[in-house]
Specification:
By secondary structure, the protein is α+β, with helices and mostly antiparallel strands. The protein is built from two helices and six strands.
């Protein structure tokens, strides 16, 4: 059985607007833990040029940031679990676990995710 998908015209801008307050909190968190050498990335982006699609995966993607040769910064992917138990807990991300497909500013989401987004939009409006 296949999943049913919903296309939201111009939905990419809406998603990023809804995500903005959480993204800001995550960047503040990264500033707080900067000296540890760790970095929490809230979105993983995969681009499929031949299909003109972008896949956005919202979650917790941990990296170690190190200085390489000639001071260049290297990003080393560590995983999805907090790498050091002494780090403070990262802020909550209600988008965590969502997968969204983007095509020319429109988004394609499963019906399940569509219902979640509708709930979030209704909360923001009221």
């Amino acid at each position: 059985m296949g999943r049913n998908y919903v296309v939201l015209k111009e939905g990419y801008q809406l998603i990023m607007e809804l995500f903005s307050p959480y993204r800001r909190k995550i960047y503040e968190y990264n500033s707080l833990i900067k000296e540890t050498g760790y970095y929490l990335k809230p979105i993983h982006l995969v681009v499929k040029k031949e299909l003109n699609l972008k896949y956005l995966y919202f979650g917790r993607y941990w990296y170690r940031v190190v200085r390489g040769y000639h001071g260049r910064i290297k990003w080393i992917y560590i995983g999805r679990e907090k790498p050091d138990p002494n780090l403070p807990e990262p802020p909550l991300n209600p988008f965590e676990g969502l997968k969204i497909i983007v095509s020319d500013g429109d988004i394609l989401v499963s019906e399940y995710i569509y219902k979640i987004l509708t709930t979030m939009i209704n909360r923001k409006v009221s």
